[in-house]
Amino acid sequence: MTGDSWGRALAQLPYLVHVLLLGAAMTVQVTAGGFVVAIVLGLVFAVLKTAPARILRVFATAYAEIFRGVPVLTQLFLIYFGLANIGIKLEPVPAAIVGFGINGGAYLTEVFRAGIEAIHGGQLEGASAIGMTRATAMWYVVLPQAVRVVLPPLGNFAIGLLKDTSIASAVAAPELSFRARTLVDQTFLSTQIYLMVAVLYLAMSLPLSRVVRALEARMGRGHVA
Questions:
Q1: Structural domain boundaries of the chain?
Q2: What is the DSSP annotation of 144-161?
Q3: Sequence-ordered list of residues with C-beta below 8 angstroms from that of 28, at least 6 positions apart, any chain
Q4: What pLDDT tens digit does each residue of the chain (225 aa) get?
Q5: pTM for the full model?
Q6: In the CATH hierarchy, which fold is given to the domain comprising 2-224?
Q7: DSSP 52
Q8: How many other C-beta atoms lie within 10 A of the C-beta of residue 131?
């Protein structure tokens, strides 16, 4: 029986690879979309969290604490099913991107906050002394330096997000895990299909890991210099 299943897997290999590659492409799309949303939200709320106005800091802190404290799967369900109950219907892929983006933004808020606070406060004072507003100084002086500081953790976040997108199958987003489960239901070749899925995840995550290590090495050399 085992030999027969491997024979059937080999006979269907082109079809299996085609379907799984479609899922892998969707995984990349969800990862990229969620990453962009997370970066935008993380930057905005990190700036708010370091703002002089207490109400802005409280608002940013509440966002970070709430969305870090609720599992991302629960957030996906609330976005996909909960919003539909009040008349806001999102397709699975946009719902997944929004969900991962909001959840990731809460984590990146703290990452960017740490990066901003790593920049000496005298730079803001110096920018203010030459006539820059706080917003202008933050955008042109502080954030470019802060982004360089947080590049390695951003890379690690991207790798984690790539793997976490498998959760999106719970809201029927046709990413890699969803396609794999569909194929298993059709063919009963679970071992062979999930081995292929593992290979595809490795093929996507290993290049990201190499980029992260290169960034960490570059940042380390810059620090020593």
A1: 2-224
A2: HHHHHHTHHHHHHHHHHH
A3: 162, 204
A4: 466 888 877 888 889 999 999 999 999 999 999 999 999 999 999 999 988 899 999 999 999 999 999 999 999 999 999 999 888 999 999 999 999 999 999 999 999 998 888 887 777 777 777 777 777 887 778 888 887 888 888 888 999 999 999 999 889 889 999 999 999 999 888 999 999 999 999 999 998 888 878 877 776 654 543
A5: 0.88
A6: MetI-like fold (1.10.3720)
A7: S
A8: 8
